[in-house]
Amino acid sequence: FSAQNPHKMARGPKKHLKRIAAPKHWMLAKLGGQWAPKPSAGPHKARECLPLVLLIRNRLKYALSGRETQMILGQKAVKVDGVARTDHTFPTGFMDVVSIEKTNEHFRLLHDVKGRYLLHRVTKEEAGYKLGKVSRVWVGLKGIPYCSTHDGRTFRYPHPDIAINDTIRFDLKTKKILDFVKFETGNLVMVSGGRNCGRIGVIVSKEKHPGTYDIVHIRDSAGQTFATRLGYVFVIGKESHPWISLPRNKGVRLDINDDRKLRLEKNKQRIVNKPKSTKKH
Asked: Full-prediction pTM beyond 0.85?
């Protein structure tokens, strides 16, 4: 209620988003205009998603403008988790499968080790299933058991051993649970938030802290150990066998010196391979 007019009500949720207030991981140019796409209400939080317009225009470069993106989506050419989406601000998020049948391309949204969304190319077979982190397990009316996942899906009659923080693998066509993996020491996980976002490793130990965040200790394939909150840990495989194909660097974060060397080498290679100009002055 306003201080001047106590009877004036709020006008509902905000419908606009300033570019400077947009999440950093969207990587929008500072001088690219005043506004950013405001994500629609959907399966992923506004600060943790990637709107479809940014995925098609900014990442895949299939469109030059928002209007072109809307034309592509209007043809129902882009499917998210097997469903054609026409809303250009639809929020895609972690583990979503984006399919473009006209180009025969399939991508799974993962994080790179710097916390940015990565469009990881997958095969058609792998694009047929998805992983979901169990966020809630309960018994509904008439004693029917349910479980819900991180992307807002609800499944009836799950396996009785499925608990919160476990991961289920389900078929996107039949919407049936195919398998599940427990949140246990020794299983392979990917970090989906925080300062260690995008890192992959094996659970070493769990610490319970009543009244605050539980902590999980993880060791990556390079032998580095790090800790993060329990809520950021997403199980992606049994023991050291992943259920999904992993990015090129296998979720191992380099230190700043190694990262700098790698980038300098890439820039050198780019300069060497650059075709020389044949213009005559």
From this structure: yes
